[in-house]
Design brief:
Mean pLDDT: 97
Number of domains: 2
Radius of gyration: 19 Å
Helix content: 25-40%
Number of helices: 8
Low-confidence stretches: none
Structural class: alpha/beta
Shape: globular
Order of helices and strands: HHHEHEEHEHEHHEEE
Strand content: 15-25%
Length: 278
């Protein structure tokens, strides 16, 4: 067991967190870029095709110039897999927060984190409950980041359906995007959580956004096709592709409830994983 006070451990965690945000903010994952390219090639509407090409050009310029893909660099959401020999204590959380501070200066990331009522800005994207850190056991020590912008996050929804309302899940997903319209900068990726508890289903929906979009199950494809039937299109200007992919995560739930959550993610579905080397 490594001691929690080990300064080399804390430094490695901070550096890995910073590296992950540098990667996520500047380079879009390959599966997302391929999905956008495929949508552009399939688009017949001139304006929609042009918008998708603009997005792809933006992605290329960000990587070439080593600048953030989007001006809204999001709030820091972090997922950690922790081997048994690494202690889970406050030191780990503090080290991740320090990595966020470093990334805020290095990327640079826009200082987005404020107190909810007074709206005081910490200027370094940390604060009470921020970064949002999720830890689970694993064989490898990894840090995965999911910078989450507000335009899409604000359009996310949750519903506590009844077990007899299983056939309403698809309607809830499509309705969520209908209400959102062009506000979340489509084409979107929709993370859908089904089951668990009120808070747990929201976590499932966000975790679903970490899954690759290259493949979808039959159910996920049905949901995606139904959303695309809305015709909202790229940036809300109409077209074939409103949704690049739907990813679903499920968990057990109470026999008397059916929680459903939709976490809306804009086309800039940023994520990156770095292994912590000790």
């Amino acid at each position: 067991m490594i001691k929690s006070a080990d300064p080399s451990l804390m430094k490695a965690v901070s550096l890995s967190t910073c590296r992950a945000f540098l990667e996520a903010e500047i380079r879009l994952p390959g599966d997302i870029r391929r999905a956008i390219s495929a949508a552009r090639d399939a688009e017949t509407d001139t304006i929609a095709r042009g918008e998708l090409q603009n997005i792809l050009t933006n992605i290329d310029r960000a990587e070439e110039m080593k600048l953030p893909i989007c001006q809204d660099t999001g709030v820091p959401v972090v997922y950690i897999t922790l081997p048994p020999e690494i202690p889970l204590d406050q030191g780990l959380y503090d080290a991740v927060a320090e990595g966020v501070r470093q990334a805020t200066a290095a990327v640079p990331m826009r200082p987005n984190v404020v107190t909810p009522l007074g709206r005081e800005n910490s200027r370094d994207n940390t604060g009470a409950g921020m970064p949002a850190i999720h830890v689970r056991p694993g064989s490898r020590f990894t840090i995965t980041v999911l910078p989450k912008g507000a335009g899409a996050e604000n359009m996310s929804r949750i519903a506590m359906l009844l077990p007899s309302h299983k056939d309403r899940i698809a309607r809830f997903v499509v309705e969520t995007m209908l209400i959102a319209g062009g506000k979340p900068c489509p084409p979107v990726v929709l993370g859908v959580g089904i089951g668990s508890t009120f808070d747990g289903v929201a976590a499932l929906a966000k975790e679903a956004l970490l899954e690759p979009v290259d493949t979808m199950s039959g159910f996920e494809r049905e949901l995606c096709d139904a959303v695309n039937e809305l015709g909202i299109g790229p940036m809300g200007l109409g077209g074939k592709t409103t949704c690049l992919a739907v990813k679903v995560k499920t968990a057990g739930c109470h026999t008397a409830s059916l929680p459903v959550a939709v976490n809306v993610q804009c086309w800039a579905c940023r994520r990156a994983t770095v292994e912590v080397v000790l």
